[in-house]
Design a protein that fits this description.
Blueprint (H helix, E strand, L loop, with lengths): L1 E2 L5 E2 L7 E2 L3 H5 L3 H10 L1 H11 L1 E3 L7 E4 L4 E4 L5 E3 L2 H15 L5 H9 L4 H6 L1 H15 L5 E2 L6 H12 L10 H19 L3 E2 L1 H9 L2
Antiparallel strand pairs: 1-2, 1-6, 3-5, 4-7, 5-6, 8-9
Helix pairs in contact: 3-9, 3-10, 4-5, 4-10, 7-8
């Protein structure tokens, strides 16, 4: 599958291009490459979830090629493509809308609806979960492009997460559909970290939620 810069896509038998991991090298050379690396990776994952309702859930970087001359992303492997249930899409939509609004309370409900956390975890670790939500919203909501290379907020987040993870009574396995989606989203975020990408994350999420 080849995804055009305007978001349209078409299927082809053979796709040429460079490895997705080489985006960083190109992004250092030209402003156009930086824009392409932003829009064509995490932006594609967002459109898969909220526009297509069909997601290639394997974030393996080797599954993607980038055509620098056209700005197209080439998807090589459809083996992990799967439909995303409406209820999963809507749970993510409510979660991201609450985050964009800077609401520190609504995300708890959305996290439970999406199956990320259980009621037991919320009751036992409400303060830690509230801090995780607050730190995430504060960091992502900073003015200007989101800098994926800035990991300063990760260590404080992990301290809270480790406390919850150590409590066996709070252990919870999310639904399979949520796990598949999160695997893809997390993988694309890791690719952005690898590229040291800076992107208008809030604007990207807001735009795809409005479609």
């Amino acid at each position: 599958m080849i995804v055009n810069p305007d978001g349209r896509f078409w299927v082809a038998c053979v796709g040429r291009g460079r490895k997705a991991g080489n985006f960083q090298l190109e992004a250092r050379k030209t402003e156009r490459a930086i824009r392409l690396s932003h829009d064509r990776t995490l932006g594609l994952a967002l459109r898969e979830l909220f526009a297509f309702g069909l997601m290639q859930t394997d974030p393996n970087f080797a599954n993607y090629r980038w055509q620098a001359d056209t700005g197209r992303i080439v998807l090589l492997d459809f083996g992990a493509a799967r439909s995303v249930p409406v209820q999963t899409v809507e749970a993510y939509r409510r979660l991201l809308r609450a985050g964009l609004a800077g609401d520190h309370l609504a995300p708890c409900t959305a996290l439970i609806e999406a199956g990320f956390i259980s009621m037991a975890a919320l009751h036992r670790h409400r303060q830690a979960i509230d801090e995780i939500i607050k730190m995430t919203i504060t960091h992502v909501g900073k003015p200007g492009p989101f800098d994926f290379a800035d990991r300063s907020f990760v260590e404080p987040l992990l301290r809270h997460i480790e406390v919850i993870a150590a409590d066996r009574a709070a252990w919870h396995v999310p639904p399979a559909d949520t796990l598949f989606v999160q695997r893809k989203v997390s993988g694309m975020a890791l690719l952005a970290v690898r590229m040291q990408a800076r992107m208008p994350l809030g604007e990207m999420v807001s735009e795809v939620l409005s479609t």
